[in-house]
Amino acid sequence: MPPMISVKNLSKTYKSGFQALKVTNLDIDKGEIFALLGPNGAGKTTMISIICGIVTPSSGSVTVDGHNIITDYRAARSMIGLVPQELTADMFETVWSTVTFSRGLFGKWPNPAHIEKLLKDLALWDKKDSKLMTLSGGMKRRVMIAKALSHEPSVLFLDEPTAGVDVELRKDMWQLVRNLRDSAVTVILTTHYIQEAEDMADRIGVINNGELILVEDKDELMHKLGKKQLTLELHEALNEIPAELAEHHLMRANDGAELIYTYDSQAPRTGITGLLTDLAQAGITFKDLDTTQRSLEDIFVDLVRRDG
């Protein structure tokens, strides 16, 4: 099956000489949830803006379900719903008219039943006759999502959709995203809440300094790069780690009451046996131990730090 989105040799350099996006290649499958992660200014919004036809690329091409975003703009753009970071709407219009008008912009026939379902799914139905200017920030964000879905797109872009919104909206939104995936809608999201990407995404892309430095299946990424940590709760706190334990690269925690050892659970040897032996020889005893898996956030920070 051909990809829903195909990005080939895409780049963007502005007249000032600033290269916002280096040469990028990426395919995203139909019905996939793809999370694009990166620090501020990394190039996430530039890439999304090009794919959505808002920014013209310096080189390369983008197709959406086979439609070129430049030479076949109307067909390509009609397949895309975009929820931007900024709240952009006529604040004097009602929720119902705003979402209905957005559907009409894409040449779709009126479908009150679809609009009603959208507003109910996003807990906006009781606000349908309210003007946008009277809504809270979270409610306005819900309206942006409804606008993006009004014309029944095959692809939905969520650019930092939960920045500054309440936990309830976050839960509602991700349930909506799951429902969209079940109906074969492709979802691309950027987020600062990496836990969301870990919970939701099928694949992860990491972008930094305008370069897509990694694209990986989420589970495979966690398997390959997710190290484990062994936390030892000591009988007596340490003011410093003895020199004879230096090779284990231990970290003090909880004012020296704990020692943390990081290891690769997939390696032939974890080094735990040697660590415990060296601790005993150093006269350091512990009363409890615990192991935890590194999170996607830990992996992301390491990747960006390494690339920088």
Could you please describe the fold and organization of this structure?
Helices cover 33% and strands 27% of the residues. The protein has 10 helices and 14 strands. Strands 6-7-8-3-9-10 form a 6-stranded mixed sheet, sandwiched between helices. A 4-stranded antiparallel sheet has the order 2-1-4-5. Helix 3 packs parallel to helix 5 (137-149). It is elongated. The two termini are 36 Å apart. The model has no long low-confidence stretch (mean pLDDT 87).
Which strands sit side by side, in order, in the main sheet?
6-7-8-3-9-10
Sum up the overall morphology in one term: elongated
Number of domains: 2
Mean pLDDT, to the nearest integer, reads 87
The secondary structure category is alpha/beta
Write a short abstract of this structure.
This protein is an alpha/beta fold and 308 residues long. Helices cover 33% and strands 27% of the residues. The strands form three sheets. Strands 6-7-8-3-9-10 form a six-stranded mixed beta sheet, with helices on both faces.
Q: Layout of SSEs?
A:
Layout: E1 5-13, E2 19-28, E3 33-37, H1 44-51, E4 59-64, E5 67-68, H2 73-78, E6 80-83, H3 95-105, H4 112-121, H5 137-149, E7 155-159, H6 167-182, E8 186-190, H7 194-200, E9 203-208, E10 211-217, H8 218-225, E11 228-234, E12 251-253, E13 258-263, H9 272-281, E14 286-293, H10 296-307
Parallel strand pairs: 3-8, 3-9, 6-7, 7-8
Antiparallel strand pairs: 1-2, 1-4, 4-5, 9-10, 11-13, 11-14, 12-13
Helix pairs in contact: 3-5
